[in-house]
Amino acid sequence: MVAAPPATADVDSVAPVARSLGLASEDFGDFARAALPGLLRYGHALTGNPHDAADLVQGVLERIGARWSTIVRRTGDPMAYARRAMANAHVSRWRRTRRENLVADLPDTDAVWQPDRFADEPLWQALRALPPRQRAVIVLRYYEDLSEAEIARAMGVSRGTVKSQANKAISTLRTRMGVPEGRDK
Predict the structure, then answer these.
(1) CATH-assigned architecture of domain 122-177
(2) What is the CA radius of gyration of the chain?
(3) pLDDT of 6-58, one tens digit each?
């Protein structure tokens, strides 16, 4: 179980910065004070570390503070904007840091590479050849056992799109596997 990080970020230091940038500091300061505990918990869930969460929240609040009036005017929901900005910033940081993994000592033994047992299976080859959206629908439906509504929500499409993509994918898989169209199972 992950404990929520303490609310340790210095929100009062945001108001002078906002005033120096000519922002409506009262609005932004009030938002930052009210949203800080929730943003820290969300950041902790994203990063898995309260210190990284505080850094993430601070960086996002700095960027939001610089554009506060525009964000409020265009989005109407600065909390949703802040959460999305935190997710994007975390993914960007994660992508930058995961490129290289330096270690102090090399392993004593060579890593054993084992080929994928299913790489040459006709079904897996046919599944890999499907377009990404069709493949995603098939995997979510039959591997993850999600309903059409859950797949639609996960992919951000309508239920009709899920149904049509599943139908096309199954037809393609049947053709590639040599299964007659009229046969159900």
Answers:
(1) Orthogonal Bundle (1.10)
(2) 24
(3) 444 444 444 444 444 444 545 899 999 999 999 998 888 888 788 989 999 99
